[in-house]
Amino acid sequence: MKNVSRVVLSAALLLLTMPAAAMAQAQTMDEISLGGSGGASALSAMSSGEATLGDGTGTLNTAPTSGPEAVAFDGTYIWIATQFNDQLTRIRVSDRSVAGSFTVGKRPVALLYAASYVWVANLLSNNVMKINPATGAVVGTFAAGDGPGGLAYDGTNIWVANRNSNNVMKLRAKDGARLGTFAVGKRPISLVSDGSSIWVTNNFSNSVTRLNSSGTVVGTYKVGKGPFGIAYDGQSIWVTNYFGKSLTRLRALDGFQLGTVTVGDGAAGIIFDGANLWVVNNGDNTLMKVSASGGTVLATYSTGRGPFAVAFDGTRVWVPNFASNSVSTAPAG
Question: Nearest 5°: CA angle at 153, between 152 and 159?
Fold first, then answer.
């Protein structure tokens, strides 16, 4: 019986470390234009260093774009942060129509819906804004660290990753009060809560930092090259490795590495929809559906140019395209 158990365990680990099979042909997605370009380009963002990825290498499409990068769902609307015109664009899910644009701070690059509000991290304003989703009105502006670019919610507090100051900040959601600032690795990009801990991807350190609810570091775990996005599936922490073309799976209990899954070039945003993972590949202009239980690629979708993030509305997935000035969407089934 022991030998049978070992075989089963070995097979499970092998499945996670084998390259995930690519689909024969990428499925198409609907594309929604976000209108005017805003007079900026992906190339200018790269040259200014404000949108630099990973170790600063790589290129993005040079066509004019308002730079849609982050996305969130509030139960009625999909929200897109268009960073080069300092706005949020709201799309009604029911008919997929644009339902307003709202001015925020300079270079909004992260979005989160939590505690009945939309939260936006403004990279160059060094602040976080709290938005009424019904009206788009700013109801609070809270100072962050240098280069806020990631957001997470633990059920009570908002956690902010400050890319340039190499720390994360804890804000009380009800009033934005600062409850602490905590050092992590180099260039923290994304965060996720598992209910008791906050996990942070350190893009320049090739690691993930785990903090307890008080902000104390309880572990640092090596992952692939250029960790970017992060998701929690109820048991495991999944990390996208931008330059590693892979996912790393960590056991949430203790950070033990359970294996890797090969995905596309520039693996960036990732979400868990309750059954499967959705992974955006920025360099390949694709979105992959990955089985959370088996680590296999179930489907591949073609997006617009330069996707970074993905959201799920319960029925459809939504991907903002940084260099196409558009949003791609498709049924998740």
Answer: 55
